[in-house]
Amino acid sequence: MRAALALLLLLGTAYALYRGKPYVREKVCQEYRTLGKENFRTLTIIANSRKYSNATFEEIGHLVQEMVSLAETCCADGAAPSCYDARSSALSAKSCSANSPFPDHPDTAKCCAQEGLERKLCQAALQHPPQPVPRYVQPSDEELCQAFKKDPKEFADRFLYEYSSSYSQAPLPVLLGSTKTFLSMVSTCCISPTPTACFLKEKLQRKTISLLTLISNRVCTRFSAYGKDKVTASYLSSLAQKVPTATFEDLFPLAEEAAEAFSQCCEAEAEDCMQEKLSEHTTKACAALSARDERIADCCKGGNLVQNYFCILNLPPVPSPSLPLAPELTNKELCSKEGPLKATRGLFETARRDPNLPDAALAKLYDALKKVREQCCSAKDPSACLDTEREQVGKELTPILTASHLCWLYNKHEFLDFKKSLQKRLAQTVPEDRPALLEHVLEQRASFASTCCTPGAPPLLCAAKVNSELGEVCQQEPCPQA
To answer: Which residues, 6+ apart, have CB-to-CB distance to 229 below 8 Å?
Structure first.
């Protein structure tokens, strides 16, 4: 397994085979011989589907075919020393041709304008953003077996592509384990005399790895989008909304620990990194929070720590207890040595008082506080700068209040009732003679709420929605309110 993962990390950049240095060539060829052609090919599909998560099945197929052919030809006994360099250079050139069959990228032309090593390094760095919401939907057992029996090889290839591209932010070891057990389940149960019982048994056995894939894709997507400091604040805010009776001192160490686990495991080669770190974290979270919240205690009753974590992760926010107004951060506090921690505490206090603020809105608030600190704390007159920026930031944060209203309404109603209620509210502020605007705003708000008012909201997509879909209509006077 370790050899396979070393190869995966090497193949994680689709053009890694180009490099041509003897030690890289020897490493690839050693792994190719160790794994064999089919296993090498399987891992190449996973790695490139993960890297080019928005590519088509056919584009990934062409790339995999070229890479496997390169290894098969140039790693053969008696292959010319120049084979590897020549074939990898030809692969690089082919990707720049007008009719290239490989995955496209907005920066492909920029890379192809360069030559030699610079072009290849540029190509190696290309990567698609993750799918905002995983597109893979598992077919029924009957549909799985029908497709498997029709063409086992194409079934496996297409599954590896669809699953790996959908969960592209899950660590490679997790993806490898999940896809391997799934294909084993299908190949076993589709020839079983009792397929229904077989699938039921196998699904129960792979429940942990399946949940681990969902969890790690979600948390690593957020970690990739936010970075360690921001994901710490995001995780802290989420816990504060789930357990608003907990103190900053209760929750901040848990948020720091979670962010550290993600930083270690999201790109780790170690097979069990994510499961081990999440299990350790879950044990500590259960010990710290079970006495404060019955829902947390219920989540922690099971013996499977991954399932317990999944339960906690998906708990909805709860109304906060009666708390005094959060103290406003002073200019002195913001620009002190403890400024970043003070700002994080301020975010915590805001989150625990408003369970309806979605992660995307809190992330916007985090960015605003960080921007103000960076612009003003090194200025000649920090206080004057901060006073000016606070006023400007206040104007920019109107979408945050809109997001809170929307999520409150969305969490209160079923979707159709939510839209009806939202339409009534919007009709009070949108001019009667502008029905097209009312419909436009309604659809934007409904889209935002259904995507971004949930625990697993995609961070990059929802950040864009806060700025575009909520910010756009708030340029009007008055701003339509939810």
So the answer is: 259, 340
pLDDT of 432-441, one tens digit each? 778 888 888 8
Q: Which two structure tokens, joined as six digits, stand for 159?
A: 């599954």
With a CB cutoff of 8 Å and minimum separation 6, the contacts of 447 are: 465, 469
Distance CA 236, CA 340 (A): 14
The residue written with tokens 């599909």 in the block is: 45
Q: Are 47 and 171 in contact (CB under 8 A)?
A: no
What six digits make up the tokens of 47? 């790695």
CA distance 361 to 404: 8
70 contacts 88 by C-beta, under 8 angstroms:
yes
* pLDDT digits 0-9 by tens, 36-94: 899 889 988 998 999 999 999 999 999 999 989 988 998 888 888 888 888 888 888 88
